[in-house]
Amino acid sequence: MVRLTVLMGGPAHAYDTGGSHGAAPPVLHIRLLGGFRAEREGGVPPAERWSRPSARTLVKLLALTPGHQLHREHIMAACWPHAELPAALRNLRVALHAARHALEPELAPRAASSYIVTDGVLVRLTAGTVLVDVEQAEVLAGSALASGGASELAAALAAFTGDLLPEDEYAAWAEPRRARLAELRQRVAIALARARLAAGETAEAAATARHLLEFAPADERAHRVLIEGYLRRGMRRAAVRQYEECAAALDSSEPGARPAPETVRLHRAALAQPRAAESEADAARVRLDWARALERSGRYDDAIRVLREALASYELQHAHDACTLTAARLAEVLARVGTPREARATLHAHPPGPHAPVEVRATHQMAEAMILFHEGNYEAGLAAARSAEAVLRHREVVPPDPQPAKHPDRAVLLARALAQQATCHGLLGRHEQAIKPAEQALSPAEESGDPALLSTVLSVLRENARRAGHHRRALGYGRRALTLAEQAGRPTATAFERANLAEVHLLLGEARDADQLARAAVDLADPFGGTCLAFALTALARVRTATDPDAARTLLDRAERCAHEGGHRQAVDEVRAARAEWDAAARARPT
Fold it and tell me: Which residues are within 8 A (CB) of 165 and not within 5 positions of it... i.e. 6 or more apart?
């Protein structure tokens, strides 16, 4: 029998998990983007809770370092900067022991680790056995930038699944790599936008450029992609406005900074373009694209304003399908911000025509379902979501609209309809009936390629698993949903997922992780207020109920105000449930 050995800083080490000789150790994946996580391909999973924070920091330091090895003094300086040498050496030994057993819980006493080895004064991660997501993202980015292909660049950009170690945002040792990764991500994003623009995919190029501007508003390259895209579509006024936004962003970032000569040339080209070249239809489509970006960033009031402008434009053109689709989007945002009466009036003012395409009628039904959901009328919302599904599954042929709109993808609508049915079943207490539609929603959500939609579906699956008592499975769904929400650039959805993950960790007895996630959810939701903040505050209150009941009660008071402000029935019910839990805990406390 062949026996695989791995050099462990000197003597050979044979991986053995208690009798299965010859087995290579499971590959360890260390995730640093979007938050630290350790996962193994088979075998006993790494510990969810680490006995020492310094052990996690040690692994993070090794994973971030090129070559994955560090002198022990470097580690001690980062982890225990004020300790005397003997104390720091003791701390290092303890942290190494804790890290090895957290990554490899089945490791026998005094057995050599498969993943962290020492070689004299050096500490390193084992080559070939440990994979780090940051390195994989960098390799994909380098290859994609060299090839310049849009598909390779899109895959590379997707590999940047979140910020580097957001829990260590102010750690000096993480800052150099964080800055390099941010610059690399921007290079990939701008290369993708340019590749899409060169291929004539102006809408896709604009979406990529706008996403980049959300976290780098003064990136002049992204502004140039948008300006050039507008010029190619004959949209003179939009190009001029984009140049003005670019100039303002540059001056805000660095007072006195002015656009580069190539940007100025595009501006002059826009000024020279005939005014008649810009059509009202193009302007409306730009507004729809911009409204989508505003929705994702949680700027709902701005999104409502832009959607109203787009709707007015389509009304002037008598583009009936486009009016129905735009009114449905506007109605959903209005319902989200707590104005369901106005949402319903907007939706019903633009019903689908008798020969409207399937997607238009299904979009209208889904907007109705969402209005009912936000009102707390879950039974009627369930019926509306079922109606949307029925429309999508009935594939009759209808005459085309003389001014056709670009309809949403059928897979997106089907996934939304099924996920909404599962959500309503769950809120009505019919948890068994919620399972099937949630599972059916997963395939069309993955087919859609929309990370925001897939995050929503996974969130529903997480809630179903939690209610069924499958907390580890819920944790897996929740982590994936959180990563996708961050990738989609949706701060309110990210806060919501963090709050829900905190509650799952609490159910597992992992109070430290629960507290960290809940605090992060509140920090992210605070600028948005309303429903989003209500859920985050409620999660933090649940975490604090056992350890600091007075603080928990204050958090619930604030959460209740936010829930009523947002007008979301589910948020109100969630706060009431948490308050009942607080009261029960208070009665159980010794007097």
Answer: 32, 35, 36, 60, 171, 174, 178
